[in-house]
Amino acid sequence: MNPITLFRSLLRQDSPTILKSYIFEALAQRGIQYTDPRIQNCVAKLDAFSDVDSIDEGLFVACVQADVETLGHLLLGDLVIPDFGHFKAVLTEIFEDLKENTAGNVATYIPQLAHVNPEYWGLSVCTVDGQQFAIGDSETPYCVQSTCKPVNYSLVLETLGVETVHRYIGREPSGRGFNELTLNHEGRPHNPMINSGAIMACSLICPELPLEERLGVVLDTWQKLTGGYRPGFSLEVYLSEKRTADRNFALGYFMREKKAFPEGIDLHQVLDFYFQCCAIEMTCRTQAVVAGSLANGGVCPITGERVFSRSTAKDCLSLMYSCGMYDFSGEFAFTVGLPAKSSVSGALMVVVPGVCGITVWSPRLDRYGNSERGLDFCNRLVKAFGFHMYDRLLKPNGAVG
Ligand code: GLN
After folding, report:
1. pLDDT tens, position by position, 69-88
2. Beta pairing class for 280-282 and 232-233
3. How many whole angstroms separate alpha carbon 383 and alpha carbon 353?
4. Closest atom, ligand 1, to C-alpha of 344
C-alpha cells in the first residue's frame, strides 16, 4: 500500500492537508476503534504532533509509514462487513426493540445474581477484521458463568489434544438440564458445555500447577482472546457459588464414583477451580472480542495473535452448535443455526464463523437458563442478515450439489 494513496483518500474538498480527526473518523466509519491495538503505533506518532492540526503529505507519511499495510487495509481494504454503518443501524434497531422484552427472571440460586438489575441490556460485536460496535450496558462487568466453558474446553484441547480430552468428556448433547445428575453410558459427562463436562475440563487444566497458577493460565487465555483486557474476578460470586454448590459437588462425587477423572486429582480443588472460572468477570465489549476470536479460527481479530489452533476453534464451535444452549440446543440449532454459549448471568456469546462474534447480556432467563432477550436477539439477527448456517441454501444460486 502506498502511503500517498492513503493520504489522498483522506483529503476533503480542495484542501492540500488533512486533519488528524479525519483519519479516526474514517476508521470509525468502518468500525475500527481509536483504541484498536493495531493502530496504536500510528496513534502515538500522530499524538506526538498534537499541537499540529493540519497534516500535510510529508508528515502523514512519516507517521504512518511503519503501519501502512495495516492502516491501508483498515481504511481501504475489503472488510468482512463492508457497510458497517448499515450493520450498526440494523443492530441498533433490534437492540431498541428488544428493550420491550421483559420476559423471564434473573437467576436466584445465589444472592449475587438475584440482586443484579434485571434491566441491564448490552450488545457488542467484533468482526473477524476487528470492526467493533457496542451499545447499551456494554461496559458493565458481569460474571461469565457458563460462558467460561468453551474457553476452558478449548484450553484443554490445546494442551492435551482432542483424543485425550474426549476420553474423559463426551460430545453428545445431553438433552437434560445443565446441572442434572446424569452421565452418559460410559459414566462420562455428555459434553463440555454442561456442568459435569466443565468440571471435568477443569480437572484437565494444568493439574500439576498450584490452584492460583491454574487460574492464572485461564485468565491469561481470556486476556489474549480479548486482545489485552485483563478479566476481573468477583470474589463474592466465587464464595457464594462455593457455599451453595451441592449439585456441583454431587456431580463431582458421581463422576469420581464412576472413576471418570484422571488419576490423582483432588476433587475439591477441581470444584474450587470451576467456581473460580465461573466468577471471572467480563464486559459485553470485551467478550465480543472473545467470540470474534472464535469466529476468526482462534486468532484475536484486534491483535492478530493466534490463541487457539484452527482445529481447536472448529471443535469448540461444533460443540457450541450442538450443546451450547443447554437443553434448548437442538431447537436453537434449528431456528438460529449458529454456535452459541449461554450462561445463568444472562451473557450469551454467539459466533458467525468467518464473520463476527457477538456477546449480548441481559440477566432475565427462561426456564432453560438462557437469556430471554439473548434468544430473541439471535432470532432477529439471523432473520436480518441471513446468518443461519444453512441460509445460503435458500438462495437459488447458493445451493450445492
Ligand atoms: N455457576 C453455575 C453453576 O455451576 C454456572 C452454570 C451456568 O451458567 N449455567 O451452576
Report:
1. 999 999 999 999 999 999 99
2. antiparallel
3. 17
4. 8
- Alpha helices, H only, 258-362: 267-278, 284-295, 310-323, 329-335
Ligand 1 within 6 A of 138 CB?
Answer: no
User: Which residue type occupies 382?
Assistant: V
Radius of gyration of the chain (CA): 22
Atom of ligand 1 nearest to the CA of 278: 1
**Is the shortest distance between the CB of 110 and ligand 1 below 6 Å?**
no
Indicate if ligand 1 lies below 6 Å from the C-beta of 343.
yes
Q: What is the pLDDT of residues 114-164, one digit of tens each?
A: 999 999 999 999 999 999 999 999 999 999 999 999 999 999 999 999 999
Cβ pair 128, 296 in contact under 8 A:
yes
Whether the Cβ atoms of residue 132 and residue 31 lie closer than 8 Å to each other = yes
When mean pLDDT is compared across 4-8, 212-216, 246-250, 397-401, the lowest value belongs to 397-401
Burial 42-77 (b: 16+ CB within 10 A, else e): bbebbeeeeeeeebeeebbbebbeebbebbbebbee
Please name each of the domains of the chain with its CATH number. 3-76 (1.10.238.210), 91-394 (3.40.710.10)
Q: Which amino acid is at 398?
A: G
Model confidence pTM above 0.90? yes
